[in-house]
Amino acid sequence: MSPYPFTSPFASLQTRRLIRQMHAGIYGAAAVTLALALLTDGDPADERYFTFGAIAFTAAVAALMLLWREASDVVLLAAFPVAGLTVTAVALLDPPLALTPMFYALPLLMAGSFLRRREALLTYLVVVGSFGAILPAVETDAPRTILWLTVAIVGGGVLLCAVALKERVETLLGQLETLAREDPLTGTFNRRAFVEHLDAETAARATRCSSVVVFDIDDFKAINDRGGHAAGDEALRILTSTVTDRLRRGDALGRLGGDEFAVTLAGADTDDALAYAEDVRTRVATASSAAGLPFTISLGITTFDGSGHDAEALLALADRALYAAKDGGRNTIRTAR
Predict the structure, then answer these.
(1) Parallel, antiparallel, or unpaired: how do β-strands 333-336 and 297-305 relate?
(2) Three-class SS of residue 217?
(3) Backbone region of residue 309 per phi and psi (left: phi > 0; alpha: psi in -120 to 50; beta: other values)
(4) Residue 318: pLDDT band by 50, 70, 90 thresholds?
(5) Cβ(47)–Cβ(92) under 8 Å?
(6) Which of 24, 92, 148, 191 could form an SS bridge with 62, CB 3.0 to 4.6 Å?
(7) Under 8 Å CB-to-CB from 38, ≥6 apart: which residues?
(8) CA 78 to CA 74: how far, in whole Å?
(9) Most distant CA pair in the chain: distance in Å?
(10) Domains in the chain and their CATH numbers?
(11) DSSP-derived secondary structure letter, 248
(12) How far is Cα 285 from Cα 239, in angstroms, rounded to an integer?
């Protein structure tokens, strides 16, 4: 499995393109800065050749980052600390930049925004360490220790803020994703998430059969009329808790709407599904009676084999079987093909 380094919830092709563009921006800025320094400085010829080489290198890396759409995780990960080294190299070639600690915030801001904590920390150590390494070679009247501490403190603050903001965004997006897929009352899949799961199940079952069981509470309106919505909510919780206890690995439970639910039974043929449904039917009756809120359920089953089935069509078949169970006196099970 590829050790994907990015923890952002936007870890997608769009994010990877943004990372490449930001790296290209840093290297491009380095090339422009060196070019401007070359125009204004009266360096000896040998130093100017060295600066020309640095300009060519940084410009080439900027172009590579823009054009290399298939850059691997390792390349993108390594580009963060290398960007820090590039800032240091530019500062060494153009000493005034060594006195501009805020310039070092760019690679750290990127690292905090896209990397896991340990990779972000590595980038920070590279930036701070390399800056400290070149300071003795930089001519300045300012205390070198103060310059180094400025980069270390400001850079660390930028990194911590970026990491904190990224992790907060990830948390909020995770909560939003849960709300978008989960029924808030019962904690089961909502209809959309259940249909997605069922579609995936039908695609995966090329040679084996599986079943869908749709069920609801018999005379649910009467429960609400007698005990109010609180009683209805409690009945739904009893139902989902009982059914959840019988889920196997690979099964899924979803609330389709109101008091209607569905279960996917991976690898279950009609006989397996009938046995499962009968067990759930009796368990629900027992559990609801024990809770002082007796009710029964009716269930409809459809079984499918092979791939290419439409989830909504399967639910419609199971729903037809459910209505047949209702017409058959409730508290019973029917199948449909």
Answers:
(1) parallel
(2) strand
(3) beta
(4) very high
(5) no
(6) 24
(7) 48, 51, 52, 55
(8) 6
(9) 99
(10) 13-181 (no CATH), 191-336 (3.30.70.270)
(11) P
(12) 9
Tokens of 147: 């310059």
Q: Residues 187-242: pLDDT tens digits?
A: 899 999 999 999 888 877 655 788 999 999 999 999 999 999 999 999 999 999 99
C-alpha–C-alpha distance, residues 235 and 230, integer Å: 9
Give every strand in the sheet of 333-336, ordered side by side: 252-257, 260-265, 209-217, 297-305, 333-336
Residue with tokens 């909502």: 190
Question: What gap in Å lies between CA 336 and CA 317, rounded to an integer?
Answer: 6
Neighbours of 7 (CB within 10 A): 16
Looking up tokens 């419609």 gives 316
226 token code pair: 């007698």
Query: In this predicted model, what pLDDT tens digit does every residue of 230-259 receive, in sequence order?
Result: 999 999 999 999 999 999 888 999 999 999
Using the structure block, give the residue that is written with the tokens 């340990």: 118
pLDDT-above-90 percentage for the chain: 37
Tokens standing for residue 88 = 């240091």
Which region among 89-98, 214-223, 288-297, 317-326 has the lowest average model confidence (pLDDT)?
A: 89-98
Query: Read out DSSP for 74-93?
Result: HHHHHHHHHHHHHHHHHHHH
pLDDT digits 0-9 by tens, 28-70: 887 887 787 777 655 555 567 777 877 888 888 889 888 888 8
| Closest to 113 measured CA to CA, from 157, 161, 163 | 163
In 3-state terms, what secondary structure has residue 291? coil
Q: Phi-psi category of 142—alpha, beta or left, where left has phi over 0 and alpha has psi -120 to 50?
A: beta
